[in-house]
Amino acid sequence: MSYLGQQLVNGLTLGGVYALIALGYSLVYGVLQILNFAHGDVYMVGAFLGYFVELALGGPTKSFLPVPLMIFIMFAVSMIGTGLLGIIIERFAYRPLRKSSRIAPLISALGVSILLQNAAQLLFSANIRSYDTSSFIPSTLGFSIGDVTVDSVRLTVLILAFVLMFALSRWVNKTQVGRAMRAIAVDRDAAVMMGIDIDKVIRWTFFVSAALAAAAGVMNGLLLRGVSSGMGFVPGLKGFTAAVIGGIGSIPGAMAGGLLLGVVESLTQGYLSTNFSDFYTFLLLIAVMLLRPNGLFGKKAIVKA
Amino acid sequence: MLEIKKLTMQFGALKSISDLDITVNKGEIVSVIGPNGAGKTTLFNVVTGIYKPTEGDVLLDGKSIAGKDPAVVNRLGIARTFQNVRLFLNMSVIENVMAATYAQTKSNIFSSALGLPASRKEEKEVRAKAEELLSFFGTRLTGYRWEQPAYSLSYANRRRLEIARALATNPKVLLLDEPAAGMNPKETQEITEVIGRLRSEKDLTILVIEHDMHVVEGISDRVIALDHGVKIAEGSFDSVATHPDVVEAYLGKGSADRK
Amino acid sequence: MTEQTTPENLGIGTDEWVAQHEKRLSRRAGLLGIVDFLNQKVSPLVRYLLLAIFAVGFGALVHNLYLLRIAANLAVFLALTLGLNVVMGFAGLLDLGFVAFFGFGAYAYALTSSAQLNQHWPTYLSVPAIVITTAFLGYLVSLPSRRLFGDYLAIVTLFFGQVFIQLIISSDSITFPGHEDSVDITGGSNGIPGLDQFKLFGYTFKTITDYYWLLLVVVALLLVAITRVDRTRVGRAWRTVREDPLASQSMGIKVNNLKMLAFIVGAAIAGLCGTIYAAIQNAVFINGFDMPLLTLIYAAVILGGSGSIPGSILGAFVMSVLPEILRVQNYSEILFLTVLILAVAALSKGWKRFGFNASLVILLGLLVKVISSALSLATTPTSTWAVGPVSKALKYWLLMPANRILWGNIAFVLLIALIANYSIAKERVKFYLLPLIAFIAIFVWEVRLVIEPNTTRQLIIGMMLVVLMIVRPQGFLGKTRVEVL
Ligand SMILES: Nc1ncnc2c1ncn2[C@@H]1O[C@H](COP(=O)(O)OP(=O)(O)O)[C@@H](O)[C@H]1O
Ligand SMILES: [Mg+2]
Predict the structure, then answer these.
(1) Of A89, B126, B237, C152, whose CA is between 20 and 30 Å from C439?
(2) Which of A76-85, B73-82, B124-133, C48-57 has the lowest mean pLDDT?
(3) Within this chain, do residues C403 and C440 fall inside the same structural domain, yes or no?
(4) Atom of ligand 1 nearest to the CA of B9
């Protein structure tokens, strides 16, 4: 029982990270109908930014700030910096292609992904870095329910992930830009005719989606996973899968898909096999696509003739 | 030949077509008219299988085709053109027509790759057929134009090519969505004749959506007027064109009284 | 019958218009226009004949094993490019698991032709069986996305590639139910060494030359087959699917079946390539079937022109020769400077401007050099970096700071920023930016990139994909001029 509980907690934490990445895919897809393949690498940049902020603040052990403040600054700087990167990527790699075929932006995204990955490799070398969280947040800190312990890093990540998801829902539903974004997702032409500034909405969409990926990247670092130029590929793939499982373009879908994927992965690793966990996730993807081709929360695609 | 029965097509809250009944007899040319947004194109989309109707049925020779895959519908004998002309722009003129013979030809990738005699023979036949179909439009689409990419064609020629492409699928019923749109008076006159010849020479049953009343008058055995997805009038051109509901639909409420 | 002159048919669709259209194109596209021109003037038959003569001559005259190996790898790569061109170029499908099929073919060959599982199937049995199996695997992978091909195919295939790698790596200790011991099927990350050589028509393939000839035959047959298919019924239908699936469907073409067919054909070709590649390498390792190879094949298809067979050939040549050139500092410098000069010349629009820009670049370099020595900045001793004629010539002009990595990185970021800025700058600003960018590019190349050939190659590919999509999405030899929305 305690083992199951522990796996669930781990799964939810992982799922929170996936959900944040998945949201980025879905937001961009909703507005532009393109799959932003570079998203995983944007996440990687976010993790690096967080790492460098940590170093700048005195490193894991000798920080001159209280730990919560340090973590806050790491998230804030990384999210804003990466968000701006998102805007830049859109401006140079996607905007010129807005009127071209479906496949051109996908290829361009592939190019951006390769560029980001190798630029990071060139600038930061191939070494794997670590946030070294355990030296400033003792792993004994935390709480237990029964036999299940939730250490403070996991707790922080979990809470932050949910706070960000909640904030995003508010943003999408309550702000003008957020509503404009949904309007564009429903019917772009109509939105343009209603005088919505598409460029502005797209800029915001890319900013928010990159910032969420950056948050996921910093969380990943805090959870003591290695930071390196190639780190974005697998989480990017999982986030992408989560978005598809949830129904690409759907915001609640991305959240649910991410959490589901995290839990499934954690459980299969815990009970079946660590080595083949991706295989099981793949089976889940296949199953969803066969049974619900539009994803769990997706609406039926409309063909326009 | 073609029967549309109690057809309703709903998009969310919007009923583009409601409870529509239309029958088209063999060899007839029927025109569908109505203001923009009346549901005419939607009707074609339902008949050709692009949309699955919310309710009702479409019968071809007494057999239901509603909700069938567009490719299947086409193979059963219904071909169409599109209001916004959807040619394969980067392919040559003749390839556009040759591609449409796909369903009646048999070469597979092995016979093509090996260049088997059967495949070569079929290729020749397909080419001859395409050339013949293109010559249906006089000199407009013949000779050097065959190898021209479709995107280099004028608007009127694109519409003609689209008709030729539809013919290449050997249809029994042809659906034309605004064939004369964007054409000048002379070309409009020409296309009117072409539609007549399609029936007599190709033995087709034709359903046309058209805004140009001269064309409608020139070709139609029967005219059906739609407004907001509902049939408001049906009959000969003269009776429909002067029908008060039709005049009102076109000119706005009250204008029928003022007249 | 004379046409009336109205805005609608004002000459459009007439001979004159088409002739002008061609002229306009080559004039507008500048340097690329020359490519267009050659593309139109030299007949395909002549081109293929020249290529064949070259390939046969190469095999007959060259005995350098290194060159032959490169040529054999190029041939495998070319066959892969042709295969992907069917999937992505003809049918417009984004298959991101393409290399997994290649890997599957290679591993399947290794398992049926080595001591690993103690299987030594005859070549004429194993290769066809593997090709058919790979095709079937392709069919299975395409099934879940059959209704919503497009973007969904991308995710399924991308994930499939990932799962393939994980399965291969983890299948070195499988415990079957009911058994005690674990068995090693794939050799995990150690791969499978010592494969059987091909044996066809009673002849055992021994040297790389043997495989070179085999590949030549395979590539030639593949070229003929694909060209024929492209020109006939199925090829035409594929193009309609890529152009406008809805219209295609309405013409009785079963779009999904055709997409699947393209996908399966691509998988089969990749599987075939895998078997030959494994036999040439005499071993299989999983890291050869990963993203870098995938992006390289995509870059080849797209560079040459998606959908164009001559384009695939050109793209495969460029993409497989490029890494070889980059590996040798001297060659990479020559290539880089040539490309840079051509690019500056093309962007300068006019020889006077070009001369002006070139002198400005030279002045800039000297200026930096003078300032740095006035400040007595630490530099890298020339003997350690000026190895070839190019760098020897550059050492009098170019500043090579002692901390190459730091300065190189700073300049790299600056370079990217400037290039990005250039793409949206006003003409007047561009005028000043160009020499600056050229200088910094030389600096970055010599100081930083030349010592990292692998990363550099990837950076070039990434840059190329983005720029190409914006400037010339149809690639060099692609004919597609109108993109369908
Ligand atoms: N795929 C669709 N989704 C939502 N509404 C649609 C769709 N297709 C058509 N409509 C709506 O149906 C109505 C009829 O359109 P249409 O059939 O194109 O009219 P027309 O008579 O001008 O051809 C319009 O209000 C249009 O907005
Ligand atoms: Mg219409």
Answers:
(1) A89
(2) C48-57
(3) yes
(4) 12
